[in-house]
Amino acid sequence: MKPWLVRGLGLSLVHVIVRALLGVALMQWPLQGSILRWMGLAVVILAAIVWAGIDGVRDRRANPDPDDGEDLTIRWLAAGAVTGIVAGFLTWLVDTLTDLPIGVKSLLFELTSGAAFTVLLVFLPAMAAVTAGRFLAGRGESKPDSSDRPSRQREREPEPAAVASAPSADSAWRSDEAPTEVFPAVDPQGPRPER
């Protein structure tokens, strides 16, 4: 199965469970609705953050060079889209077929506006977590030395023995006895025509 599909379906399951539990909790404690909604929102965001952070750490450890890393932006955008559409449909289905008071709107709303909100709810925290995961995984690594560079770069560098034995091209210019030449001053207005 594709990685974005696994993440999208997993987060859809989290989203549906949170909304179902939120509906039941609101029936038990109706005066705590605001706190319960914020807690449900935090759980969905936290699930995306943890999973995306793990992706960022794994990617940086597998690819120490940032240019060689996987494209996690598209992976998490697709996962957010799957989460939005599947979670919207499943919550509508659960609300329609069961007695759980999830409190969904129409199917059209759940598959459009509700899905768009869910995409942002997954994608934005996931991108922040991927960036943080890559940063934290890359902090402990030292900078690559010449032995870690690709062989094509090493071919361009001269051997240390050859550098030590060859005379330096500018060594003659470093002494106090170096020849000097005085250049004429440059006129800022340019050359003047002769009369």
From TrEMBL:
Matches recorded under InterPro entries: B-4DMT-like, DUF6338
Transmembrane segments: 9-29, 35-54, 74-94, 114-137
Residue ranges, annotated region (Disordered): 138-195
Bias (Basic and acidic residues): 140-159
Bias (Low complexity) ranges: 160-172
Keyword Membrane part of the UniProt annotation: yes
Keyword set includes Nucleotide-binding: no
One Pfam family it belongs to: DUF6338
Keywords: Membrane, Transmembrane, Transmembrane helix
Protein name: Hypothetical membrane protein
